[in-house]
Each structure stands twice: as C-alpha cells, then as structure tokens.
Design a protein that fits this description.
396 residues; alpha/beta; FAD/NAD(P)-binding domain; 11 helices; 21 strands; 27% strand; binds flavin-adenine dinucleotide
C-alpha cells in the first residue's frame, strides 16, 4: 500500500516510520525541508507527566481577556482577535473540569507507551540525542506551585509516572545554577528530553536507509480524486500517486483537509525559543521556571530556553518583544551569562485544535484520507504513540 504522508515534521516522520514497520510503502512530502517546521526549535521535553490539555477549568473568558497583555506567558494579538473568535469560542467550550479530565485520560492512554517507543526507536537505529535525567520545576510563588501539583496529581491517577516534591534548598542541590528565592518545586523523575533537530534528522536518515522516499520543496495543493477516494497528491511539481494519504502538516493541515472536504478548526499557538551554542555553564537537566512558565533544556554543547503561547494567526512572524520577557525570566532565575546576549531566536507554530488534543484518524469526507494533527505543546512527546496508532488504522 503506497501511503503519501504530507508533512515531514516529527509527527509525519514518526507516522511514516510506523507505516513502514507495518509493511506499507510510505513516502513523505514536505513543502520545505524535512524537520524545518515547528518541530525544529522546540524545547524537546518528552514529558508524559506534564501531559494535560491547555483548555482547562482555570481558563475562563476573564483570563482569556487578560491574554491581550503582551508580556504574559499567554498572549492573544488584539489585531488577530476577530479571526480567532470562532476558535476561541470552541476552546472556551472545552475549558471545563469534565473536558479537562477526559483530555488527561486521552493523553495518558497515548503516553502509556511513549518512553518505551522512544527506547525502541533508539534500538532500531534511529540516531538522536536523548537523555532520561528528568525535568525540574522550580517556583517562587507557592500558589502557582499548587496549580501544578493539582495537574501532576490528576495525571498520576491515570498514568504511572514518577515525580516528587522538592523544597527550597533541595532545588539548588538538584540544580546549582538556580538563583536563590525559589520556595518549592517538583522533580519529574520519569521524564526525558531530546534535541528535536536530532530526532527529525535521525528519523529522516533511518527512513531513507529503509528506502522511504522523502520529497522536499514540494507543496501539496490538492488531490486527484475518484469519487470519495484520493488517487494522487497534486502539486506544482506534478502528481504523486497514493493508495492512502496521511495529513500531518502541522498548522498547514487545515488547508489540506479543507481541500478534501473536511473543515478543521486549527490555529497556531506560537512559541519562541533562543538557542545558545557552547554556553559557559550548563544545566544538569531541563528546568521550568514555573512562575513565568519559561523552560530551559541542556543539549550537548548548547542550551535552549523558551516558552510563551501566542495566538496571532497562522504566520511565522517573529515578534522580538515576546522574547525579551523570556530573557528577563532566565536572567532572574538562573546563573547563565548568555541570558541577555546572543543566541539564535526562533518562532514555531504549535498546531492547536479547540480541544487542545491531538486528532488521529480518518476524515469523514474521504475513504482513504487520514489526519494526525493538533499535538500543540506535546508533539515530540506524542509523535511516536500517535504515529503508531495512525499507522495501525491506515493498515488495518
Ligand atoms: C516553543 C515551543 C516549545 C515546544 N516544546 C515542546 C516540548 O518540549 N515537548 C513537546 O513534546 N512538544 C513541544 N513543542 C510542540 C512541538 O514542537 C509540536 O507539537 C510539533 O513540532 C508539531 O509537529 P508536526 O509534525 O505536527 O508539525 P511541524 O513540525 O510544523 O511539521 C509540519 C510540516 O508540514 C509541512 N507542510 C505544511 N503544509 C504543507 C503542504 N501543503 N505540503 C507539504 N508540506 C506541508 C511543513 O513544511 C512542515 O515541515 C514545542 C513547540 C514550541 C513552539
């Protein structure tokens, strides 16, 4: 079965990997370079323990209105508001305790296999930078820590995770670069991290070695169809025949689904990172400055910090005013000389559906078109489990 996977980010590449494992004959088509989308500059946490939907009971209309401020971790660009209203209305409907609890259960069931799937990928010859040193969260404000404790407990009820509470001085023992003033935190012992670019490069290399074709610089713009079946992907470069199609094009998936007769309310949750090569000092493990929701990840020879969730439409405009508060938070929290100097600044578009959960399955309007999208803040964590689940549906 020849399966065309549209999108060569972490989700599309993982899907192609599991399709090949199940005996299908996948190929991947990307408008740009494989691994060049949202997957490239992200923080790289593999964190089942922190897997909760963003849509939750604490986010009412009032807190959504507060997001119009530019310096908060969550920000809605006022000019984008009219176009975002339908998405926001859908999102608001999912900000209930019941939807949040259902969402955690869904993510927990997907994450049950996450760590072992990553171990299997490494054992199968996918070469990537991966460490299981846990993730440390540090808070100055005990009320904010309490909100995270609620989330960690909710996840623990459904998913076998290892985390523990850490009091003030213990935080600095675990992370000597932390500045004084943090009162409490959590060590997520069973979580890990990887360098995202190394994962996409590793998957791409392993797929090519298996004979899977990766077509770069080819934007899919529609389909050649026969009734309710797609027979080929179309593009300015020509048609590519396929027996089935997987749309895993991140924020580009809505347009592709629409061309196949399926509406998807997808928007971009923009996030920013700064990557500093050869920092003078290095963290022991990923760190979250919980008060500001700024994350930091140590890689071999580099450190990356970032965060924020900006709703400003589907565009890759980098607003440097959103990066200044990230740098300030790093400088306040951690003894890292490069917080305010240099580094490569990056913006990425997290694919977000209104329920802030992944959508994995066949679309209703076509018999042989599937989607794997909407992984929001968890695309690296969920890519193997969602890729495997979708490959099983396509080849069933
Ligand atoms: C700041 C930040 C930090 C993050 N940190 C983490 C983290 O620590 N842990 C975690 O699990 N997740 C994290 N994420 C989320 C994660 O990066 C995303 O969920 C994930 O990268 C989405 O992957 P994707 O493959 O769906 O999309 P992408 O990586 O964007 O890939 C989609 C691909 O589709 C291609 N495409 C689009 N349209 C077309 C078309 N018409 N034809 C052909 N190709 C097309 C694009 O060129 C692109 O390469 C973070 C995100 C951000 C922004």
């Amino acid at each position: 079965m020849r399966v065309g996977v549209v999108g060569g980010g972490v989700v599309g590449l993982a899907t192609a990997w599991y399709l090949a494992e199940r005996g299908a004959d996948p190929f991947v088509v990307d408008a740009g370079r494989v691994g060049g989308g949202c997957s490239r500059g992200s923080l790289g946490w593999i964190s089942p323990t922190l897997s909760v939907p963003l849509a939750g009971p604490v986010l009412g209309w009032r807190s959504l209105a507060g997001m119009l401020r530019r310096d908060g971790p969550l920000h809605i660009r006022p000019a984008a508001l009219p176009a975002l209203l339908p998405w926001l209305a859908g999102f608001r409907r999912h900000c209930t305790k019941a939807a949040w609890t259902r969402g955690i259960a869904r993510l927990a069931s997907l994450n049950e296999a996450t760590m072992s799937l990553y171990d299997d990928l490494a054992a199968s010859g996918v070469d990537f930078e991966f460490a299981r040193t846990g993730i440390l969260l540090a808070f100055r404000d005990r009320r904010k820590a309490e909100q995270t404790r609620t989330e960690l407990r909710a996840v623990s009820e459904l998913y076998s995770t290892r985390w523990r509470e850490v009091e003030g001085a213990g935080l600095q023992e675990l992370e000597p670069l932390l500045k004084p003033g943090f009162s409490e935190g959590f060590l997520l012992e069973s979580d890990g991290h990887l360098r995202p670019e190394s994962l996409t490069a590793g998957l791409a290399g392993a797929l090519r070695r298996r004979g899977v074709e990766l077509v770069e610089g080819c934007r899919v713009d529609g389909y050649r169809e026969d009734g309710r079946r797609v027979r080929a992907l179309t593009s300015a470069e020509g048609d590519i025949d396929a027996d089935a199609v997987v749309l895993a094009a991140g924020v580009g998936t809505a347009e592709l689904a629409r061309a196949a007769g399926q509406a998807l309310f997808l928007t971009a949750g923009k996030g920013y990172t700064v990557t500093v090569e050869t920092p003078a000092r290095q963290l022991r493990r990923p760190l979250i400055l919980g008060d500001e929701k700024v994350g930091m990840t140590p890689f071999a020879g580099a450190i990356r910090f970032g965060g924020t969730m900006e709703l400003s439409g589907v565009n890759d405009r980098l607003d440097s005013r959103r990066i200044a508060p990230l740098r300030d938070a790093v400088e306040r929290g951690v003894d890292i000389a490069e917080a305010h100097s240099g580094g490569v600044e990056w913006v990425g578009m997290r694919p977000m559906l209104p329920d802030t959960l992944p959508l994995v399955g066949r679309i209703a309007s076509r018999r042989n078109v599937f989607v794997n999208v909407g992984h929001q803040m968890l695309g690296l964590t969920l890519a193997p489990s969602c890729g495997k689940a979708l490959a099983e549906m396509v080849t069933a």
